[in-house]
């Protein structure tokens, strides 16, 4: 197999460092002069010559394009590496890791007995970065933040029992904020709960997260279904790995299907046209129009269209905390609405005669003005 460039460079640098370490930058100290005779450490008689050890055959340094059969030794400078052939991903955990790796490049969490095989398979895949955190809740929070910052699908992992229960506060927040997140956790064995197990499905459901449990024959397919559910409904889901299933051989990884995503909603039918026409007429006739946008507008990438609408109607604008900055023109933007808004800005919102809301929920926070 071809030598990895990064490995080659690292070994070359390591060899150079060893060479430099053997060179002293300061002159050697001379022995202290003394009048006393110094006993010689050399033997009085010359020892008999011994046979020289057979020198190993020289091996030509490997170059970047060299290949070697699995199990053979390849010399690189003064070091040697053993080439290896990665084993096929054949366990249930490997199937899950393979399916997730196709849709994310980062995962956060804490390793434990319940997810050790999964993380090992994920590490062997080489395409996903795992960031270890100190607490399971921190893993879910980090994944949540990763999605909000534009990193893509949020993925976190924890072990079973207390490891899972530590994630619940962050999991509840992700559910309330509608964050598409996959939490991969260990779970009780299929034979039934042990003394330290808890009803993880019930606990996840209590905070608004559905659980998908993988089996020995459907691990990859179940993982894809869980990802689809998280992305299509914008909610967190739990992907459970039963303790006695995670390391079972499951055969070669099957071809992964494309994710099924719903088509964007378009204006179709007389009823939809009637609603849009009524909203346009109300904004046209309004004396003090007002536009409110939330995170849904961000997800729809509607900033430019909303900016054009605000300019055409002369409306004041504001957003929810998660939709902040969606309107491109800041001169007539009142900032965040509701409890986080400035008192003077909220007074102006109260004077509006027509308000149109885009991608935001109307609740005690957004309507606190």
From TrEMBL:
- GO CC annotation: acetolactate synthase complex
Give the range the annotation lists for the signal sequence. Answer: 1-25
* Keywords, in A-Z order: Signal, Thiamine pyrophosphate
Question: What GO molecular function annotation could you give as one example from this UniProt entry?
Answer: flavin adenine dinucleotide binding
**Residue ranges, compositional bias (Low complexity):** 59-72
Q: Which InterPro entries match?
A: DHS-like_NAD/FAD-binding_dom, THDP-binding, Thiamin_PyroP_enz_cen_dom, Thiamin_PyroP_enz_TPP-bd_dom, TPP_enz
Boundaries of every Thiamine pyrophosphate enzyme N-terminal TPP-binding domain copy? 91-191
Q: Where is the Thiamine pyrophosphate enzyme central domain?
A: 276-365
Pfam families for the chain: TPP_enzyme_M, TPP_enzyme_N
Tell me, what is an example of a GO biological process annotation in this record? isoleucine biosynthetic process
Location of the region described as Disordered in the Swiss-Prot/TrEMBL record: 23-72
Please name the PANTHER family in this protein's record: ACETOLACTATE SYNTHASE CATALYTIC SUBUNIT, MITOCHONDRIAL (PTHR18968:SF13), THIAMINE PYROPHOSPHATE ENZYMES (PTHR18968)
Regarding protein family, the annotation reads:
Belongs to the TPP enzyme family.
Q: What is this protein called?
A: Thiamine pyrophosphate-binding protein
Question: What is the source species?
Answer: Parastrongyloides trichosuri (Possum-specific nematode worm)
């Amino acid at each position: 197999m071809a030598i990895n460039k990064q490995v080659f460079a690292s070994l070359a640098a390591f060899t150079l460092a060893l060479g430099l370490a053997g060179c002293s930058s300061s002159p050697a100290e001379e022995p202290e002069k003394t009048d006393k005779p110094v006993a010689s450490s050399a033997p009085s008689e010359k020892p008999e010559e011994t046979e020289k050890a057979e020198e190993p055959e020289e091996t030509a340094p490997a170059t970047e394009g060299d290949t070697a059969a699995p199990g053979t030794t390849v010399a690189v400078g003064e070091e040697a590496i053993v080439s290896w052939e990665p084993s096929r991903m054949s366990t249930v955990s490997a199937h899950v890791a393979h399916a997730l790796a196709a849709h994310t490049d980062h995962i956060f969490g804490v390793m434990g007995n319940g997810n050790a095989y999964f993380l090992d398979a994920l590490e062997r895949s080489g395409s996903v970065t795992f960031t270890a955190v100190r607490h399971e809740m921190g893993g879910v929070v980090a994944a949540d933040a990763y999605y909000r910052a534009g990193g893509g699908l949020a993925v976190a992992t924890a072990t079973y029992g207390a490891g899972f229960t530590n994630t619940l506060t962050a999991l509840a927040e992700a559910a309330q904020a509608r964050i598409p997140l996959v939490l991969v956790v260990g779970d009780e064995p299929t034979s039934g709960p042990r003394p330290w197990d808890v009803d993880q499905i019930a606990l996840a459901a209590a905070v608004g997260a559905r659980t998908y449990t993988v089996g020995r024959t459907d691990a990859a397919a179940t993982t894809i279904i869980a990802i689809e559910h998280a992305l299509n409904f914008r909610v967190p889901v739990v992907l459970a790995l039963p303790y006695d299933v995670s390391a079972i051989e499951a055969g070669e990884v099957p071809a992964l299907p494309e994710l099924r995503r719903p088509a964007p909603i378009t204006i179709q039918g007389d009823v939809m046209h009637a609603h849009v026409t009524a909203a346009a007429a109300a904004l046209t006739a309004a004396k003090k129009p007002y536009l409110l946008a939330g995170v849904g507008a961000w997800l729809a990438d509607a900033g430019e269209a909303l900016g054009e609408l605000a300019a055409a109607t002369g409306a004041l604008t504001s957003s929810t905390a998660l939709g902040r900055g969606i309107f491109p023109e800041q001169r007539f933007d009142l900032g965040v609405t509701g409890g986080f808004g400035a008192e003077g800005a909220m007074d102006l919102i109260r004077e509006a005669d027509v308000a149109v809301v885009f991608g935001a929920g109307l609740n005690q926070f957004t309507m606190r003005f």
